Amino acid sequence: MKMVSLLSGDNVNIISIKTDDFTLNFMGSISNKKAEAIKANLNIPAFIKVISDEYLPSQIETKTLCTNGELERNSGYNMFPCFFEDGIYQIWLEKNTESNIEIYHISSDIRKKITTIGKNLIGAFSFSGEIGYSTFKVKKRGRIVLELTIEVFPTKMDYRKDYFEIMNDVNDEIASLAFEFLGKTYHSSGLSDVKHQTAAEFVSILKIIFNILERALIRIEKNPKHIMLNSDVVNKFEKAKRPSRNSLNYLRKHPQVLAKSSRGFITINEDKYIPTQVLENKKITTIDIFENRYVKYILKSIIKRLSTIKNILQINNRADNEYYTLICDLKKKLEFHLNSFFKNIGELTGRKSMSLVFQMAPGYKQVYYNYMLLKKGLTLSEDIYNITPKKLWKLYEIWCYMKLHNILKDMGYEVENYGIIRATDNGLSLSLIQDKEASMTYSNNEGKKIELWYNKSYSKLPTVSQRPDTVLCLKSSDNDERIYIFDAKYRLCVEGNVIGPMEDDINVMHRYRDAIVEEMGETMQFKYKTFGAYVMFPYSDESKFYHHKYYKSIESVNIGAFPMLPGSTNLIRKHLEKILCLSTIEAKQERVAADEFDDYAKFKLENVMVVNVKDEEHLKAYVKNKFYHIPASRLSNVRLGVAYLAFYESKKSFSEGSSGINFYGKIKEVKRYKRYMCTDIPVKRGNEEEEYLRFELEELIEINNIKPVEYGTQLITYTTLYLLKNAGNIHELKLKDRDEIELYKLLKKISKEKGVKLLRKTDSYVLDGKVIEMLGHGEVRVDGRIVEAMELEGEWL
Fold this sequence. Notes:
The protein is α+β, with helices and mostly antiparallel strands.
């Protein structure tokens, strides 16, 4: 059927089916604002099928909508796409008989909307986000007399492209996770049948994985694993190139092969003999090895199970259905492999655990993987492979989670804990399908740990509980964490030519940030835990959305949205890369300030004195006895307002891994004394009478290591408590405001990408020999030339 655009309009006849007993009509709008906005599912054939055991084809007149807006007879299986997931449709059945007629649909919501008025059945309904084939059954006196199957299209994604790619992505990603989980969990265990596995589950899984399994078998047969063996074969003496050491034993047992000869080198009773035959050592290649025997064992196990199921069907007289035919077909194909390539392979005996070949080698890896899914993963049949296409919003939510997982893996984060998959007696259960709270834990080669939560519940909050779809949690060694919320919303807002998320969904992101808080010690005050909150919505044009206000709002208030469909994940990928590379202090500066004092306390209130520690011996004494002292000649008095003291361990005096700042403490008391009065550290001869300042500390608190840079800190320097607790390196202890943090982030990025050194001075930075001074209001001075800060990257291109 050649597809062209339909006329627009509301409540037109879409389908009419007429029989002797009734006329069934469907009416509704043939235009969909959202589908038209994304230009999807408008000009493709839709499926329609009418079947009946009650009426002959000639007794059924089926009409569907055509291009001129009129109904025309349709005896095929295609019609124009008129049914959409969020459309409102009317159904009307007019009876021509006194018999009881009713309409049945699997959805109880649709059934409830259909009522009887006189002799007619009338109702208005929506498919409520369900897509794919939808069947209406007409019953006469309780018996089905006609079935109408139509195709319902999504309005927020391309049905032929995005939907099927999402289905494949979800299946592939979760199956890959299951394989990784099984590989780590079961690789050293024996193989055994799962007792509660049903025949239907077994065949369902085998049907889905069979093509992959057979391709893997063919690959093994073309490139089998093999080994070289030393073998002794009988050969003529003059032709033997490498006589075997076992030839002497052979000659003792076969003296008839010895012949008298003057050239003989074997003497028996003073006669000389020469052998006519000896054992020759030859290397032969064999494929009869453990790995190939294991594959044969797998084949025989599957065939045995299929034979059992086949026999049960025969006994119960059910050998005339498609299910039986499928089993016979699969069994025949597997037997072909067993009786050809694997015919001369020996039987598997002894251990049945996985070798490294089944983790690494092409073909063998896929066979083992699919066999483990078949043996252990039958709840995966329900959870992964049979994900219903009906609830598309749920499928989209799962896909978004798995896509974030995939991006994290691409960024070098390895899974430590597969929290969304759990082993049960019957197989594996998948938390994503069951709406349970679960998480995956990751780490990278730098030791960074993150968690990706699904359906995380925040219940112990001052107001109401919150349960966002996906939560990315960045963990630090001192149990501090940064939370970013990603909420999948299968909804679109279309306003003219502007497509974006629903405003209500953006408001939910604000609610999450305000509601998810944690208590600050015993002060009964609370702080925000959420650093950013974003809506993920189904839209593919990333370049167009780049200019949308809800994308630009991410940069200003860290709340906004990302378009997410197959092939359209670049924006969210870049953002994930950004937030995972941010230091704590860079991340915190992006949060909205509570008021002016908030920034003053962070950058101006220098109440921490950073002091140099001489060596390991002095550090141990300071930590053990909770103090620090310094000659009064170097520090005559304590600056007003200083309440804390932090220890700097130089790269020169301490090992590379521990140098930097690791400890700080609150000052309890400052006093003066003569050096000889300190018994905690031995005094050097000659300076017993030197005057010192001694700082008594309440306690020493260990913090995340603040790394040193190219140069050390001064003998005494000052910073704020906020910067001390959040800095990642010494540079960050002297940041003056949010503008400088933005500049520092940019310079650090340039330094990394271009491979040039970054140094910080009192009021400027030095990058690759160029002096950069901050002027404020987004301007900097580069070697005396004033430019916009955002133009700096071009200086090194």
